[in-house]
Amino acid sequence: MAKSGLVLYGCALVLLCSCFVLTRCAPESALITQLPGFNGSFPSEHYSGYVTIDPDHEKRLFYYFVTSEGDPSKDPVVLWLNGGPGCSSFDGFVYEHGCFNFEAAKTQQGLPHLHLNPYSWSKVSNIIYLDSPAGVGFSYSKNSSDYKTGDIKTALDSHTFLLKWFELYPEFLPNPFFIAGESYAGIYVPTLAIEVANGIDTGVKPVLNLKGYIVGNGDTDEEFDGNALIPFAHGMGLISDELFEEVKRECKGNYYKPLSSTCESKLTKVDQDVGGLNIYDILEPCYHGPSTWSVPVDNDRLPASFRRLGETERPLPVRNRMFGRAWPLRAPVRDGCVPTWSELLNNNSIPCTDDEVATTWLNDKDVRKAIHAEEQSMAGTWELCTDRISFYHDAGSMIKYHKNLTARGYRALIYSGDHDLGLPYTGTQAWTRSMGYKIVDEWRPWTSNDQVAGYLQGYENNLTFLTIKGAGHTVPEYKPREALDFYSRFLAGKRI
């Protein structure tokens, strides 16, 4: 029988007995009561607003919080982060696993129509969509120096956000807490998880109930990610056996930083073979077409095989929009600084992409008012991915972070859509194997809706690598049912 007792978390009085009684403490000013474009009742409560993480600079991070459609008092709380760096987490909310599907407006001046998403991740979890760092999405600072940042500072700021957010919503402190994200959030997630874990160990208040983390098609390690394209391209039938053998022989397995002109010439041939593909899903067409691509003048920082890929960002035709760059593979980097979007794009033409639905909706003044976002005079025009920030990759390889976290008992799910050419599953499979952990669940299929949905391999220390069959870079967008299945099973600690 459960013990009875009283626990006080801020203003939330929690009664622990045979049942769980929760006194809401969420700020009423953050409650969302309606959304332009949606007619009907929300399946759960929605909150949004700002958390000030630096009062002196008026640095404020924006969040959108959806409570679980199941049992909000017990279901996990999940922080979701999109990548970039520079991309808003409304990408995940609008296009991937938010509680709505967005239908484009039928008139030029109209707003998108919102319909309930049967595969929303809020079916099984409370989920926070965070725009991070400051300068991204609706998040901002009144001190422009804050727009020069990097991995480490972003993790520190996001940790500060979490501590302050849980002070606003203390009733969720007992819930299991997970951090999740995709693409460049393959760096955001583990660096933030380390900050949270260290805070727990050193007694930082409030104490978060961190249980684990999730990374999808994530940046991890320059060498592993950079060397992944060649075996992926060959395995997918994109290059010939002869070319594959030539590249292996001349490059000696080092495809990311070729050491000879002969190797470079072979990689150039690979580049020519795959250059016209949608790099975020090789099965999908390109929206604008590769004819809009142009090679940047300053591209000598990339090996030849990746220069073409480095010009552009996320060509995703399913909803035809832009997404965060898979940095180590394609974005030219000087002295650790990730280039801005304007440096990567030619004449503001974003090949294969169109973010019109999200941009139209989130820049509407009535929508901004409904979700408590600042007007454009303060937060600026909402962009899916911005070039307002100057970002430095200063955390290095993520493998040491993953080893640290999993060795401390935190559960990790590392998943990959298996048709992503930008961050191929072959690199993720290789670095998870390189951790040196014993295999405890040998390579096998996993199922969704009584069909094989992909494959997984489980390692000791609660590390799981999983693929999703037929999915591209943003898995929940391509395979929403399958994504909800593995997500809900992982959170519940069930076998996938």
Automatic annotation (TrEMBL):
One of its GO terms (cellular component) is extracellular region. Its main location: secreted. It is found in: Secreted. Probable carboxypeptidase. GO terms for molecular function: serine-type carboxypeptidase activity. Keywords: Carboxypeptidase, Disulfide bond, Glycoprotein, Hydrolase, Protease, Secreted, Signal. Its EC number is 3.4.16.-. It holds the Pfam family Peptidase_S10. GO terms for biological process: proteolysis. InterPro entries: AB_hydrolase_fold (IPR029058), Peptidase_S10 (IPR001563), Ser_caboxypep_his_AS (IPR033124), Ser_caboxypep_ser_AS (IPR018202). Belongs to the peptidase S10 family. SUPFAM superfamilies: alpha/beta-Hydrolases. Gene3D superfamilies: 3.40.50.11320, 6.10.250.940, alpha/beta hydrolase (3.40.50.1820). This is Carboxypeptidase. Residues 1-25 form the signal peptide. It comes from Eucalyptus globulus.
